[in-house]
Amino acid sequence: MAQEDRWKFWSRQNEVDEKWIEFVDDNALAELPRGTHVVGAFPHGASYWTRTAEIQTEQADGSSQSFFIKVSQGDIGKAMVSGEFVSMTTLHQIIPDSTPAPIAWGTYASNPNIHFFLCHFVEVIDEVPDIETFTLKVADLHAKSSSPNGKYGFPVPTYMGQMAQYHAWTDSWEEFFTLSMERLMTTIEESQGPDEELRDLFGQTMSKVVPRLLRPLETGGRQIKPCLVHGDLYSGNVSVDVETGMPVLYDATCLYAHNEWDLAPWRLARHKIGTPFMKAYFRHFPTSAPEEDQEDRSILYCLRWDMKGMVIYPGDVRYRTYCVDAMKALIERFPDGYEGWARIQGEDPAPGPKAQKGRP
């Protein structure tokens, strides 16, 4: 994407009309405490796919209270806010002191094509939280949560931008990651056309690198557990609570996944929450075995992050460059794949998830 085209993308008009946050729809009002008097609704925050606002109110006892509303439109918008409600509700159950309390999601009475997510309003400072406090909170989230059925996935679709994540319940992490990446690659090709180099590198990555880095996590006596991950945990979705000084996490797109999945954006120099946070996190949560693979797993998870960027920011060639560079580096590093590693370790190579299920 040329500089001019990139400017056009980032400055494009939001598809949700601002008028939908200039008042409080009856269905949203019905979700607020009985006796709520709305003082006004005021734009708050920024989004490329939704409109967001602070709803200032006076309560029945005369006290002032604010709420936060996010408004979207269409079928995808409906799925986005319903998925965010489930994500934030599940997250709030584990770390209630670091997440705004969700209230409801629904559809406007005044327009059935407009949908909303509603939660309590938290006044925040737009800055990176204290490194120890934040990483301990993320580690607590991962340690205290567990999948309801022991599988990887999530009960409802969750979205990154307007892109639905793969979320079907899956037995192994390697299988879940593989299916998630294949979905991403298909979406890239459908939206941007065939790319022979990218497809070839992707095929080698999936056949060599993914088994090499992910199969050892759950074979040879090693185990990981599916835990709740925020799913989009970069500095744009983290702030500091003005009142408590605690980190505040929002805009979640949750999954039950390998905990290291949440750390992927932290290795990127372009993000304010960077590698020092990753090092601090591992002081609170043990590195998965094989420990020596952690850095390379991080590169692999970051590849998925940048492939996501190719989808939601179409035409921005930077993301393609990031992906190609990462895949080339990983393929060069692991030419013998999982089987070569297993032989060196003296382990009998374990079958992959497809072989285990007898799939072609």
Polypeptide structure, described:
With about 350 residues, this protein is of the alpha+beta class. About 40% of the residues lie in helices and about 15% in strands. It contains 11 helices and 12 strands. Strands 1-2-3-5-4 form a 5-stranded antiparallel beta sheet. A 3-stranded antiparallel beta sheet has the order 6-10-11. A two-stranded antiparallel ribbon has the order 7-8. The two termini are about 40 Å apart.
Give a quick rundown of the structure:
With 360 residues, the protein is of the alpha+beta class. It has helices at residues 3-10, 26-29, 74-94, 131-144, 173-192, 196-214, 275-281, 294-312, 317-333, 337-345, 353-357, and strands spanning 37-43, 51-58, 64-73, 102-107, 114-120, 124-125, 159-160, 163-164, 227-229, 238-241, 247-249, 255-257. 40% of the residues lie in helices and 16% in strands.
From the helix content, strand content and strand pairing, which structural class follows? alpha+beta
General form: globular
| Biggest sheet overview | 5 strands, antiparallel
Q: How would you state the average pLDDT, rounded?
A: 93
Tally of individual helices: 11
The portion of residues assigned to helices is: 25-40%
Rg of Cα set:
22 Å
Which regions contain 5 or more consecutive residues with pLDDT less than 50?
A: 1-11
Task: Note the beta-strand portion.
Answer: 15-25%
Side-by-side strand order of the widest sheet: 1-2-3-5-4
Strand segment count: 12
**What series of H and E elements makes up the topology?**
HHEEEHEEEHEEHHEEEEHHHHH
How far the N terminus sits from the C terminus, by CA atoms, comes to 39 Å
